[in-house]
Amino acid sequence: MNHTDSIDEGRLSALVRTGASGPLRENRIGLEKEGLRVAPGGTVAATPHPAALGAALTHPYITTDFSEALLELITPPAVGKEGALDFLRDLHAYVYRHLGDELLWATSMPCVLEGARGIPLARYGRSNAGQMKTVYRRGLGNRYGRVMQVIAGVHFNFSFADAFWPLYQEIAEDQGELGHFRSEAYMGLIRNLQRLGWLVPFLFGASPAVCKSFAQGRQTDLAEFDAYTLYAPYGTSLRMGDIGYQNRQTEGTGMKACYDSLDAYIRSLTWAIQTPCPFYETIGVKVGDRYEQLNANVLQIENEYYSTVRPKQILEGMEKPTLALRRRGVRYVEVRSLDVNAFEPLGVAAEQIDFLETLMFFCLLADSPRINAQERRAIDENQVLAAHRGRDLELRLDRGGRPVGLRDWAGELLDAMAPAAELLDVGSDGSRAQSLRAQQAKVRDPELTPSARMLAEMRANAEGFHAFARRMSERHRDHFRGIDLDPERVADLDALATGSHQRQRAIEAADDLPFDEFLARYFTQGEPEPVPTDVTAAW
Predict the structure, then answer these.
(1) CA–CA distance, 334 with 190 (Å, rounded to integer)
(2) Residue 76 is part of which domain span?
(3) What is the pTM of this model?
């Protein structure tokens, strides 16, 4: 087994001796869950974001992603998974109080699509900040197509407890500044998460099939499940495969974010944001009086770069993400590869969170050398293979330049994670250990994976993707409508909705710059001060 596939036993033993299990109980978890609003007829909802939910520009927990119909529900960081899951449950129940006869779609891949024109861009009001968010989305649509942008997912945000880092720095015998040590340790963790990223679609992928309308008449290598459904017979996560969200045009520019260090990551993204792309220049930037994209560079802004995992820092107003990272380092890590789990009302289960926390800890404790060009190609190829053929018993991945069976590699990794789970559990049979056993069962029998269960249920009910997804969506709607929300929670969310509208109006009233100048100032901002405004940090 490679050193990157096993825990450094010295570090682990030292953590046990120093009582790290206490601080590790204070790790923080947050969730971001996207969900498409769907009209009664089974198509993307054409209605505006419900005003009763608040202003998407300024609400901290209920906003929109690419489309006006693509809701994004965000939990604040919580100690332990229960707080995050409970908050997400309450947000769903609250949202359903204001959806009328619409549904929240229960899967990552979208419902019946009537072309790009049937997908409305998210709107955030007339302020400069609001216009910028809409223009960014118009640019995404122009660059990659709107259909791809309404694929939904779940993002897992994680940070180790503040009290953990001095202990870990001492064990590592690092004499430097604590913030720098923490950032570089997170970057090492991220490199290992990329190396092992194929595990997530294999274990938790829940998008092996899609409505034919998603293909928009294009040729694909997918098989026909029925007259209305395409699927990958051994697929786990089409969302994470080559028909999902990809920065395809950046391949011709040589653009790949560098994760060697935090500084290298910032510099690689800064280059992409500042470097013109001939392909995007053909779109135009300001065409007539309308902006078609924020700029014609390789990336409009940092978040356009698609990756399965990102280093993150909390933004101050309209501060650029790279600037926030340079100023204050890595605060938390965002894992973006989880499909919406159609079998779970929340789209994510406690078992998944337990596994991801164990995986994060494992990736921190394993050696993490820099990723060279050959390994980068292997990482990308392994990801696509696991997404499209993960349940193929003969599938082999690239490990260190040599072929290895996916199930063999997965089995070794899960066994190697057991000590990390035990330390997190503060015992031998806690929830993380139980989650590991559940994942080991999937390795032995891939028919237990969500993707296999989904296809099996579709076959058993003689239903295509749309019928399955709609049935699950209706089941989850009934679940959330049956929840008796705490009156205090309702009052808090009502107050947040009202306050968000007030904040949006205040931002609009305070604007004193033409949009062109606002945009120029945003992209030229630097030390010592950011451009201030009060908007949600979820781009």
Answers:
(1) 9
(2) 3-524
(3) 0.94
